[in-house]
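Late entry, evening session. Most of the bench is empty. Finally got around to the prediction I had been postponing all week. Sequence below, unchanged from the version circulated by S.P.
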Amino acid sequence: THYEYDATKIKTYYGAIDRYYAPGEKTDGQTHGVGWGARNFHNGNGNGPAKRAGEQTDYGDYSLLVAEHLAATADPPRPFDVDEFIPRWQEALGSWRSWICTQTRQTYQQVAQGVPTAQLGGNSNAMALRHAAALAYYDDEDALAATARAAMFTHREATALDGGEFFARVTFRVVRGAAQRGPLRRERVVVARKRRRAGSRQEVIVLPPRALQHDDAREGLREH
C-alpha cells in the first residue's frame, strides 16, 4: 500500500502484518494513494514484472543505487558528486521497475535539456532519504549531511533538503552513541542552509517535534 497513508485503511487491509506482501497483494492489485487515485505504483513500468514481496520500493532502489555508486567510487574516497552520479542514475532509470516519482521524471528531463546541475530538481517538499549507505562510508557528520542533500538532487525545495539533512545528522549521532549522552530531543541539530538577508546570516535550527515542548528549544531561528 505504498502511498496509502490512512492507518485505519491499512489495518483493515492487513490486520497483523507478519510477512512481506507484494504491492497491492492485499488490496485488489492496487497500492492506492492520496490524490492520485487507486493504482499500482510499482507495476514494473514496462521494464519487467511488477515488484514482488520483499523487493524495494523506489526509496529502497534509490538507496541501493547510491550504495552501488559509493562502492564504485571508493578508491579514493571522496565527496558525493552529483555530476559523477548522474550517468549511473540515467542508466538505472532505463530498467527501473519501481514507481518513478514526479521529481525524478522532471529532473531526468532537465538533465536531457542541459540544465546546470546546481539548478536541477523540482519543488516538492516530500523529502527522499537516499543516503543510508553513506553512514558506512563517511566518518564525518558534515560529509554525511552534504551527501544527504546531494543524493536528493531531484529536489530543490528547501524544507525537503533540510529534512533529509536533519535525519542524516541525527542518525549519525545515534549510531555513534549519542543516545548514551542523554535524550536526543534535547540536542540542537543545526542544518547547513544559510540565507543572506540584510547582511545577516540565518541558521535554520531543526529540532525533533518533541523538543519543541521544552523552554530551551523555543527559538527556531538564530540571527548572527
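Two things to note before I forget:
The two ends are 46 Å apart (CA to CA).
The helical segments are 7-14, 58-72, 82-93, 102-112, 141-151, 158-175.
Will write this up properly tomorrow.
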